């Protein structure tokens, strides 16, 4: 059996294989609510055979959205349409995951096809917040520095959203601490110039995320998976780097985080990033080895052989795909065919399946 298609167990939750749908903003919500687009988008990828399907970044508070059209989870009501999506994903034998996020100083910007830069308040924008009053770039607003009280309130918002996500049927929660959004902004000395307990030393810069992860873990009933996505490096001298990521991963493991999802960049506008096939995989490999925690590799993973090799050689426990799964929601089924493995196909599609492919049995019926 190809390693890519082997089961992965964490905390008594079984992922049918090692392929995950990476969180991808759809910028298609009104007031943060999921709708038919989110249902079609996410459930198609569960039908396609991914072992875990993550929602896009879901903002834990209204000003935590990137664009006004982002998904949000700041009220109980937001989980009604999401619960239907989670049920469908689960019935396909996949684990439903939600990515909890706060955009920080990169909030209140136009969605990619509607404009560039900051959305003015008159057009539905808002004043973004951050660790320090330092704008991401010239085209972004200068954020309001968060007080310690507001930091605590946001940690509670993450924890409340996690508890609601679990009640709505999501068995995995990922805290978004990457790509230059709020939690990453606190980690990096380039965006965090605070003089209080949340800035300065490594301990202080990582405090917001560590407290947040601990609060989310406490709020989640067992068994629930807790992932944290980080940018392993800012790709900039004097910024957040891989050594700090390894140490952070060790600390997060003791808090009860199950897996580090290893991305990079996003906090420095002009960073030079050597983008290429699998360019972030070495981060997943190093963190897995040195912090002794499960990792996910992400970024320009596109071929079945490449993905299988990452798992087989122990560079990561999961691969998360984004754009390749936009091109082809059935990528996992196709990968299994390429690798010569008879992966289960949805019963409804069996007439199109390779000879010998078994019928898919939903995971909750297996035990
Ligand atoms: C349309 C789109 C939206 C994205 N939105 C998110 C997001 O909500 N949260 C996140 O952590 N990453 C987001 N990303 C980054 C992806 O999850 C992924 O890390 C990145 O695209 C690299 O993987 P790929 O080469 O397989 O596309 C997004 C990427 C795309 C293409």
In short, what is this structure?
Helices cover 31% and strands 15% of the residues. It is an alpha/beta fold and 367 residues long.
Word description of this protein:
The protein has 367 residues and is of the alpha/beta class. The protein has a single domain (3-365), classed as TIM Barrel, CATH 3.20.20. Helix content is 31%, strand content 15%. Strands 3-4-5-8-9-10-11-12 form an eight-stranded parallel β-barrel, surrounded by seven helices. A two-stranded antiparallel ribbon has the order 1-2. A two-stranded parallel ribbon has the order 6-7. It starts with 7 loop residues before the first strand and ends in a 29-residue tail after the last helix. The mean pLDDT is 97. The chain binds flavin mononucleotide. Flavin mononucleotide binds at residues 22-25, 56-57, 99, 176, 178-179, 229, 263, 298-301, 321-324. The site of flavin mononucleotide has 20 residues, from strand 4 and helix 10.
Q: Within the CATH hierarchy, at the fold level, what is the topology? A: TIM Barrel
Strand element count: 12
Please give the alpha-carbon distance between the first and last residues.
Answer: 21 Å
State the shape.
globular
The secondary structure category is: alpha/beta
Strand content: 5-15%
* Radius of gyration computed on alpha carbons: 20 Å
Count of structural domains: 1
Mean pLDDT, rounded to whole units?
A: 97
- Which blocks of ≥5 consecutive residues have pLDDT under 50? none
Bound molecules: flavin mononucleotide
For the largest beta-sheet, the strand count, sense and barrel status come to: 8 strands, parallel, barrel
Which superfamily, in CATH terms, is the homologous superfamily?
Aldolase class I
**Count of helical regions:** 11
């Amino acid at each position: 059996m190809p390693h890519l298609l082997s089961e992965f167990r964490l905390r008594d939750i079984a992922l049918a294989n090692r392929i995950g749908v990476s969180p991808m903003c759809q910028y298609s919500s009104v007031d943060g609510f999921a709708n038919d687009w989110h249902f079609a988008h996410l459930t198609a990828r569960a039908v396609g055979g991914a072992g875990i399907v993550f929602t896009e970044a879901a903002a834990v508070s209204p000003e935590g959205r990137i664009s006004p059209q982002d998904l949000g989870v700041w009220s109980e009501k937001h989980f009604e349409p999401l619960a239907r999506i989670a049920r469908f994903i689960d019935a396909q034998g996949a684990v439903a995951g939600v990515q909890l996020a706060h955009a920080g100083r990169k909030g209140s910007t136009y969605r990619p096809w509607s404009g560039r830069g900051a959305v003015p308040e008159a057009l539905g924008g808002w004043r973004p917040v951050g660790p320090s009053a330092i704008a991401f770039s010239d085209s972004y607003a200068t954020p309001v520095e968060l007080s310690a009280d507001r930091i605590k309130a946001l940690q509670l918002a993450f924890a409340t959203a996690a508890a609601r996500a679990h009640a709505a049927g999501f068995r995995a929660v990922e805290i978004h601490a990457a790509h230059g959004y709020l939690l990453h902004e606190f980690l990096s000395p380039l965006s965090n110039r605070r003089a209080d307990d949340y800035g300065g030393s490594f301990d202080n810069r990582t405090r917001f995320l560590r407290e947040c992860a601990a609060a989310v873990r406490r709020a989640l009933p067992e068994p629930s998976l807790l992932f944290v996505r980080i940018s392993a490096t800012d790709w900039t001298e004097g910024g957040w780097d891989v050594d700090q990521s390894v140490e952070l991963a060790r600390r997060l493991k003791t808090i009860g985080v199950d897996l580090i999802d290893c991305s990079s960049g996003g906090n420095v506008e002009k960073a030079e990033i050597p983008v290429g096939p699998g360019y972030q995989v070495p981060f997943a490999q190093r963190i897995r080895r040195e912090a002794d925690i499960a990792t996910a590799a992400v970024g320009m993973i596109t071929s079945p052989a490449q993905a299988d090799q990452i798992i087989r050689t122990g560079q990561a426990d999961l691969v998360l795909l984004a754009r390749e799964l936009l091109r082809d929601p059935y990528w996992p089924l196709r990968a299994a065919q390429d690798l010569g493995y008879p992966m289960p196909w949805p019963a409804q599609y069996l007439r199109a399946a390779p000879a010998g492919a078994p019928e898919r049995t939903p995971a909750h019926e297996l035990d």
